[in-house]
Amino acid sequence: MGGGDVPGVHDRLVADYFADEPLYADAMFRRHFRMSRRLFLWIADDVSRIDPIFTLRFDARGKRGFTTLHKCTAAICQLAYGTTTDTWDEYLKRSERTARECLYNFCKCVVKLYNKKYLRKPNASDVQKLYQFHEQNHDFPGMLGSIDSMHWAQQNCPNAWRGQFTRDDHGHPTIMLKAVGSQDLWIWHAFFDVPGSNNDINVIH
């Protein structure tokens, strides 16, 4: 990934979120990243082990590159907020291209790492266990998990399609990702929206 680390950015990131006594406590960390600090560090450690892109490297001039925490933060912030690649420029001090590459490679690593366990289709036994969990813990029979959605900006949307993919609350073409996850972080359904009526009922079907 192109670009080099700006002095002080990694230290500020650590002081804000990853120090022994960070500026933002656990509750705020979860709010900002949509996950716990422990889970974030677990994923960051996993992706850095299978892909050297996520490790700290130096270029031919000896210039320091971005750290694992910096690269994973760039990717996860985009996923957590569904924002464009340049949204976090001021805080993370890296280019739009680098942010896009972080996101792309991060998603590839996550699929490679967790596909067999968390991205597979549920069988009859899995579904029954999910039913039992929600009924025992929430008195909610017949519940499989939580459904949520996010909008991804379509920068290269053809002009002929812009009207179909543009909503009043966004003002630019987007495509919606709907996903269903269970309490054990198992993403068992994902669906990219197409124009038309797509609600929680017909998406599942």
Description:
The protein contains nine helices and three strands, in the order αααααααβαββα. It has 205 residues and is mainly α. It folds into two domains: 9-116, no CATH class; 120-204, no CATH class. Strands 1-2-3 form a three-stranded antiparallel beta sheet. A hairpin with a 5-residue loop joins strand 2 (174-181) and strand 3 (187-192). Helix 3 crosses helix 6. The longest helix is centred in the middle third of the chain and has 23 residues, at 96-118.
Features:
205 residues, mainly alpha, 2 domains
SSE layout:
Elements: H1 9-18, H2 26-33, H3 37-50, H4 68-81, H5 89-92, H6 96-118, H7 124-138, E1 146-153, H8 162-165, E2 174-181, E3 187-192, H9 200-204
Antiparallel strand pairs: 1-2, 2-3
Helix pairs in contact: 3-6, 4-6
In DSSP terms, counting alpha (H) and pi (I) runs of 4 or more, how many helices?
Answer: 9
Specify the biggest β-sheet: 3 strands, antiparallel
The total of beta strands comes to 3
Q: Taking Cα atoms only, what radius of gyration do you get, to the nearest Å?
A: 19 Å
User: What fraction of the residues are assigned to beta strands by DSSP?
Assistant: 5-15%
Low-confidence stretches: none
User: What best-fitting shape do the alpha-carbon axes yield?
Assistant: globular
Order of helices and strands: HHHHHHHEHEEH
Helix percent reads 40-55%
How far is it from the N-terminal to the C-terminal residue, by CA?
Answer: 40 Å
Any idea how many domains?
A: 2
* Average predicted local confidence, pLDDT: 79
Find the structural class using helix and strand composition.
mainly alpha
Which strand order does the major sheet show? 1-2-3
